[in-house]
Amino acid sequence: MLRSVLLFCVCLFLVGCASIQSSYIPTLSEEEYMQATRKAELIVDDTTKIVVVATRMNIMQKYKSKDEVFLLDVYESGDGKKDFIQNGYKIYLQNKTKPLKIQKINKDSLDEFMQSKVMRWSEQYLVTFAPQDKKTTDSLTLVLEHEKYGKNFLQFGYRNIKKEARE
């Protein structure tokens, strides 16, 4: 009797773990988002001045573009005006390429998937760069810089994930 109960409990545990494990596998969109996203901060005197979460939209299947397009999710600390470009921050590629366009966007203009990924207290910007050559795109690095606070790098060099039908 004890053996039967023990065997039943072990079987129940193994079956339960198998179903839980499969629920943690990300969808293809989530996996692409994780690969396409980097975070940078500029911290001065133990105070976070800015947090930038950048997503390279070109990597994600449903946002393909001939240009290099990034969605920046920007949080600035302090009571001043919340516009990181007007506050002296610069964003450019490591090869010194400046953006063609920096467009502040409303969170509501993003699709449901991207809305779920942005911080609710931040501002969102679409930053567009001219198309880059293959050598540059394999090791693409976005630079966030401020004259007083220094700079930080968001490196987007990666290996493509296998295109699996997970969704």
Question: Can you give a write-up of this model?
Answer:
The chain has 167 residues and is of the alpha+beta class. The chain has one domain (28-155). It is 24% helix and 34% strand. It has helices spanning 2-23, 28-36, 112-115, 134-138; strands spanning 37-44, 47-56, 68-76, 89-93, 101-105, 123-129, 141-146, 150-155. Strands 1-2-3-6-5 form a 5-stranded antiparallel β-sheet. It has a 3-stranded antiparallel β-sheet with strand order 4-7-8, with no helix packed on it. A hairpin with a 2-residue loop joins β1 (37-44) and β2 (47-56). The chain is elongated, with a radius of gyration of 21 Å. The termini are far apart. This is Lipoprotein. Keywords: Signal. Residues 1-20 form the signal peptide.
Itemize the secondary structure elements and their pairings.
Layout: H1 2-23, H2 28-36, E1 37-44, E2 47-56, E3 68-76, E4 89-93, E5 101-105, H3 112-115, E6 123-129, H4 134-138, E7 141-146, E8 150-155
Antiparallel strand pairs: 1-2, 2-3, 3-6, 4-7, 5-6, 7-8
